[in-house]
Design a protein that fits this description.
Layout (H helix, E strand, L loop, with lengths): L1 E6 L2 H13 L3 E7 L4 H8 L3 E6 L4 H11 L6 E5 L4 H9 L2 E6 L7 H46 L3 H15 L3 H15 L1
Parallel strand pairs: 1-2, 1-3, 3-4, 4-5
Helix pairs in contact: 2-3, 5-6, 5-7, 6-7
């Protein structure tokens, strides 16, 4: 695993680096909290991002999210403050691990594994949710298009469904796409 560390404390960054190497991972570089993260991410292409800060601020976490852009990474946070606000901000920023006052080199490899596993699990759930939302939206389009065909052509619900299905097969498109096209065409004609 390729790891990029952003650290407030040089001493704690050394502990993190030792832990990364102990786990057989590659420490790409260590950045300070005020360093430009986006260019470092682009340059080093890490698999995991580790943040060490006494109390990660909302602005710092938002900056990390912005730097990651459309390609989020597993994020492990090592902090010294356990305030509810700091933890909540960290989790909202996508932290897959948030460790408070438990920085020991021997613990780092397992924490990184947990962060990656949790990140992958959550990414899978997000993907499933996006697919479910898309299917629901397509189903709504199909229902509306069926209603339109039933009214415009005086078809039964079954006939309207089969008409949409046939159109989808003829055009080699999904039914939701065809239904959406039917609705858009009806809008243009009205």
């Amino acid at each position: 695993m390729r790891v990029l560390v952003i650290a407030e404390s040089t001493e704690r960054a050394e502990i993190l680096g030792a832990g990364v190497r102990l786990g057989g991972h590659e420490l790409l570089e260590v950045l300070s909290l005020d360093a430009a993260v986006a260019p470092a991410l682009e340059r080093s292409k890490p698999d995991v991002l580790v943040l060490e800060a006494g109390a990660p601020s909302v602005d710092l976490l938002d900056g990390l999210l912005d730097a990651m852009g459309a390609k989020p990474l597993p994020l492990a946070i090592f902090a010294r403050e356990a305030s509810a606000q700091a933890i909540e901000s960290g989790v909202r920023a996508g932290a897959a691990a948030y460790v408070v006052d438990g920085l020991q080199a021997e613990r780092v490899p397992a924490i990184l594994q947990v962060a990656v596993a949790r990140f992958e699990y959550i990414s899978g759930l997000r993907s499933e949710l996006a697919q479910a939302r898309q299917k629901l939206a397509e189903r709504k389009f199909v229902e509306r298009a069926k209603g339109l065909l039933m009214k415009a052509r005086n078809l039964s619900e079954d006939e309207a469904y089969h008409t949409l299905r046939r159109m989808a097969m003829e055009r080699n498109r999904r039914m939701g796409e065809v239904a959406r096209s039917v609705l858009e065409m009806a809008e243009l004609l009205n």
